[in-house]
Specification:
This protein is an alpha/beta fold. Helices cover 38% and strands 24% of the residues.
């Protein structure tokens, strides 16, 4: 699928997508078709749909943290014409969420702490300490990484984070030397590569 044919399909189906976003999400077929169309353009791309407080529709084109998808996201949104009542965004933008519900787990960002090391290439290696974390429950890792994406932005997560390790926050572990996701964002905002 070409860039032009994707946006033509989107324009022809935007009313159905708007209805899906505005509804109780009982029929996911239009979302699944949108996902398939993006995959036809690039296997790395996924859609995220939402609305702003002033009822404008938002399509976030994400590559779900996979670096190989960066050029495909950039090319798809480059020089595209505006679509009425829509905001099209490349990558998940910073916008912290208090909690991320995921398959029965509800991970609060207040339960996530971390430390970091900065490499000579100005990239960061992060060690997360997560309250309740279990290495046998993959949703903890996914939710932790989603919290990171939503705090620092997906593009920063892909281009400025070199590696991540996730550990359980011990019951009696001191938090004195640990940082928060907001402190990570401030660190990245103040240290551009």
């Amino acid at each position: 699928m070409t860039k032009e044919s994707f946006w033509e399909w989107f324009d022809n189906n935007k009313n159905s997508i708007e209805n899906f976003i505005s509804s109780e999400h009982t029929d996911y077929s239009i979302y699944e078709t949108l996902s398939d169309k993006l995959k036809q353009y690039s296997e790395f791309l996924i859609p995220e749909l939402t609305m702003t407080e002033d009822n404008k529709f938002v399509l976030v084109i994400s590559c779900d943290g996979i670096k190989q998808g960066i050029p495909f996201v950039n090319e798809l949104v480059k020089n595209m014409r505006p679509i009425e009542n829509w905001t099209i965004t490349a990558f998940r933008q910073p916008g912290p969420m208090e909690s991320i519900p995921l398959n029965g787990l509800n991970l609060y960002r207040s339960n996530i702490f971390l430390q970091w090391q900065k490499s000579s290439s100005q990239k960061y290696f992060l060690t997360f300490y997560v309250k309740g974390f279990s290495p046998h429950e993959p949703n903890y890792e996914i939710a932790t990484l989603l919290h990171m994406d939503h705090t620092i932005g997906e593009f920063n997560a892909m281009t400025r984070i070199e590696g991540v390790e996730i550990k359980k926050l011990g019951v009696f572990q001191s938090k004195k030397e640990l940082k928060t996701l907001d402190e990570l964002k401030s660190e990245l905002d103040g240290n551009f590569a």
